[in-house]
Predict the 3D structure of the following.
Amino acid sequence: MRALICKEPGIFEYQDLSEPKLEPGYSILSVKRVGVCGTDIHAFAGNQPFFEYPRILGHELAASILETTDPDFEVGELVTLIPYFNCGDCVACNQGKGNCCVRIKVYGVHIDGGMRQRIAVPNEYLIKAPGLDLDALALVEPLSIGQHAVVRSGLKPGEFALVVGAGPIGLGLMEMARLAGAQVIAMDVNESRLGVCEQKFGIKYLINPAKEDALERLKEITNGNMPSVVFDASGSLKAINQAFQFLAHTGRYVLVGLQKEYISFSHPEFHKREATLMSSRNASKQDFAQVIRYLQSGQVNPVHYITHRYDFESIAEKFQQISQPENACIKAIIELD
Ligand SMILES: [Zn+2]
Ligand SMILES: [Zn+2]
């Protein structure tokens, strides 16, 4: 079977690998769609920290079951995968938080992933999603990242939530926050991305901090109170440090995007707000279930996210195009048959 291997940064190679064999506790899946994530783009570019090569990328998967040892699943059933393989026996796992397991192995990041025709995966990571088509299934994981951040923040209906960064994760986060009842404010330095927020996602409040006084605009929008929840989905050090000042008193600041440096902020400013700083990593099965409900009910429409499609045999050659700004890609999907 065909597999696409990232041999080293900048180099993809197709190889013919032997077929996976069915073992107890596992299922064999035929991979149908693979969403391209920022992680895949960084890994290919060689700027993903602690990344080992060669590696088969891909963790946003839609697949059908070819063979299974799990009586809850049927051959031919369409599924997705929760790609955070956890140890089951660490301080995080023991609290039911496999998303931040001490020994986590993310499928397609720490271990070989889904950019191949067939995979064998442990049954416990299969996710049922009746009624969802392949495109919707491939979006469940990236949208769950946003849903997890919303749950982490304890967002309540009516609160103002600022989302900094309108890439695919930020857009998903805005939609999850809106569905949780928040009044969402989008911030990005890229005008065309702000346009997407408004036109496709119905976000009313848009701020470009490169062009206007963000602090003043936030005061206007929130009647002087400032947003009670701020999410960073930019992964930009400058943006992360700057956004501390946007927090309301009592506010919560949730870091979703990741970067490599130390962050810094004024202790008195933070203290006087009695603010909370937290990170949000991956997602839980409950987050997956909520996103699946939103997709099943039509409250979330995959068409708003998927802007580009590539077939499996041409993706190696075209991979670099995906992240080029003029391409204006939100989510690219690789199609296998
Ligand atoms: Zn991802
Ligand atoms: Zn663990």
About this structure: The domain at 2-128+305-335 is CATH 3.90.180.10 (Quinone Oxidoreductase; Chain A, domain 1). The longest strand covers residues 26-36. The pocket of zinc ion (ligand 2) is lined by residues 86-87, 90, 92-93, 101-103 (CB under 6 Å).
